Amino acid sequence: MKVAFQTLGCRVNVYDTEAMAEMFVQDGYTLTDFDSVADVYVINTCTVTHMGEKKSRQYIHRAKRQNPQAIVAVVGCLAQVSKDEVMAIEGVDVIVGSRDKRDVVFQVNRAMAEGKQIVAVSDSLLLNHKFEDLGVTGYEGKTRAFLKIQDGCNRFCSYCIIPYARGGISSKNPQVLLKEIEALAGNGYREVILSGIHIASYGQELAEKMDLLDLLEAVEQIPGIERIRIGSIEPMFFQGERLSRVLALTKLCPHFHLSLQSGCDATLKRMNRRYTAEEFAAVVKALREAIPEVSLTTDVIVGFPGESEGEFEETAAFLEKLQLTRIHTFKYSPRKGTPAFNFPNEVESAVKEDRSRRVMMISRRGEEKFLARHVGQVLPVLFEEGKNGVHLGYTPNYLQVRVPSAVNLQGKILPTKLTGLKGDVLQGEILVDLGFSQPS
Ligand code: SF4
């Protein structure tokens, strides 16, 4: 039997899909592309934006067109928040909620055997703090292991559906996690990426007294792990004495994705973000002073209800001043069930489009400057894939570097001179003798 997957949305969803794929393989299924004929199609959905939801629906229809006899399983955020609507979509055989993914194979097999629609969606997840450990075990062919350490969120930003779609904070058991990382190190992994929905909340609900900093300090002690990266993180995590503990971590990579969302205090307040633009700028300043090579990226939402031209100008000026490495821009999309859904003064699509374009231009300028200032530097690069004599790798601050090499560099961390820029990719030259001359 063949199973095909389609994943929408965030990196955490990608992780969940990998875990579900492993479960199907363990049950005897073989994996195939979503574009080919399969017996089972699993769509791991997203509902964070209107676009994520629209695409989720398109893939449901596409799966059924590809093989009308196939079992179509709709899993994750959309299934969780719009269960009844998903049940009503023609051709949907299995509906599995955000914290019920562990049972996906069982439910699919059940739908096949019983020939009826199966719905496995837990009721309101807001008070559900149980971490669903899907436990990906295979990371073949990769040099970096992505680990989901946390799920859910209880911050309730006014625009965000995530607390309803993914539930309350739940953290992976630290002992289990540390053992997994030790095993990964034993298998040659040099870098781990610790990610989740709101990782700054890691450990809050655990009986063990272990927060994110304690966890990072414990991972730092694991021999063989040379780099630790963290996913998107709450900017205020770096405030106060936590910053000095962060700076003492020698393996933590100097790339932080700090979600800003707006540079205007009035907009931030309506968004229920719990910081001011000034506080965010202070974190950026402190990180840059302490780690000159730090790369700081962010997310910004444009066209939030009531965002006047003046408010947007404040955000634009703030971003221009900060000169971050990259800004991911999102046009606000109302999510039913969130407070902002009912906020007045909607911003027109054309205005959102224009603001998004303006933020992207600011982002482009910041990125160009940041990349250009690295030309001529020598940095350790962890190489990943290689193809046709060209290898790609990443610096500690997450800049992509392309290097010509006749030998396989995958998994190696090598001192590399950054010689120039092609588009937005740095070109490099390895500074150790690899036993051959590098083509230029
Ligand atoms: S912090 Fe806010 S935006 Fe981020 S997941 Fe939680 S509620 Fe959503």
UniProtKB/TrEMBL annotation:
Catalytic activity: N(6)-L-threonylcarbamoyladenosine(37) in tRNA + (sulfur carrier)-SH + AH2 + 2 S-adenosyl-L-methionine = 2-methylsulfanyl-N(6)-L-threonylcarbamoyladenosine(37) in tRNA + (sulfur carrier)-H + 5'-deoxyadenosine + L-methionine + A + S-adenosyl-L-homocysteine + 2 H(+)
UniProt keyword Cytoplasm, yes or no: yes
Main enzyme class: transferase
This protein's UniProt keywords: 4Fe-4S, Cytoplasm, Iron, Iron-sulfur, Metal-binding, S-adenosyl-L-methionine, Transferase, tRNA processing
Domain TRAM: 372-432
Role, per record: Catalyzes the methylthiolation of N6-threonylcarbamoyladenosine (t(6)A), leading to the formation of 2-methylthio-N6-threonylcarbamoyladenosine (ms(2)t(6)A) at position 37 in tRNAs that read codons beginning with adenine.
Cofactor: [4Fe-4S] cluster
Gene3D superfamilies to which the protein is assigned, alphabetical: Methylthiotransferase, N-terminal domain (3.40.50.12160), tm_1862 like domain (3.80.30.20)
Membership in a protein family: Belongs to the methylthiotransferase family. MtaB subfamily.
Protein name as annotated: Threonylcarbamoyladenosine tRNA methylthiotransferase MtaB
Keyword 4Fe-4S: yes
SUPFAM superfamilies linked to this entry: Radical SAM enzymes
Domain Radical SAM core intervals: 139-369
GO molecular function: 4 iron, 4 sulfur cluster binding; metal ion binding; tRNA (N(6)-L-threonylcarbamoyladenosine(37)-C(2))-methylthiotransferase activity
